[in-house]
Amino acid sequence: MARKPTLSPSKITTYLACPVKYRWTYVDDRGKWYLRSKSYYSFGSTLHRVLERFHDTGDAGVNTTEEVMAAYEESWIDAGYASAEELAEAYGEGREILERHVQQATAQPRESKTIFVERQFRHDMGEFALLGRVDRVDEYPDGTLEIVDYKSGRESVEVEDVATDIAMACYQLLLRHKFPGVPIRARIIALRTGHSAAASMTDEEAADFEQTILQLGREILSEEYHELTPVFKPLCLHCDFLPLCRKHPEFAEL
Ligand code: SF4
């Protein structure tokens, strides 16, 4: 039996940003030859890996600042930095971020407890399965489950940013299905400052969002990707696939 197609927040946001980019990333194998390492992905992956170990209650070896710094050194990913100076600067920033995070997390007894780190959730939407990997889920004494998402490039975050983020809405939907009747909240932490904001969907908003994802999913999965014409937009200037799109006879750069 054919496996059910899957959609994730990354796939959905890629499609919304540019369907042609979705083609080169997920549909057409040629795209993989054009992908380049990015320093911000390396930096984000490194920090996520260390924070996963710090918050994982099953990982007894990463609790103090010293242990976090040792885990940081072990987890560091070099790929994508333009120079040794850029890499050294990022490494220093990462140290500061982690030191502050550990300090904030250990300054006073926590009200909540972490129940999942880097956990994938899945929900069968009929025509496809919605998948989402959450950085962390904390449980509060009143039973609320809080999804925590780390943003390694951000310095600030507002409630509105959380409320309008497709990934955060997908995660809420996934946890709502996994834990029916349990209050679910989503929080983004801007790692560069430690600032955070949280929002949650009402039942009505969640039902509307589920319908939107269903319709969007149908559109994404039925798109005729090989017939799409790439359209130039500001995003193209930073896109790995620009050389591929330039080969299309109707691609006009402004
Ligand atoms: S270069 Fe532009 S049109 Fe082509 S995939 Fe990238 S964003 Fe889309």
From TrEMBL:
**What is the name attached to this protein's record?**
RecB family exonuclease
A GO biological process of this protein is: DNA repair
Species name? Fimbriimonas ginsengisoli Gsoil 348
UniProt domain PD-(D/E)XK endonuclease-like: residue ranges:
6-246
Q: Provide this UniProt record's keywords sorted from A to Z.
A: ATP-binding, DNA damage, DNA repair, Exonuclease, Helicase, Hydrolase, Nuclease, Nucleotide-binding
Could you cite one Gene Ontology molecular function of this protein?
A: exonuclease activity
Transmembrane parts of this sequence:
none
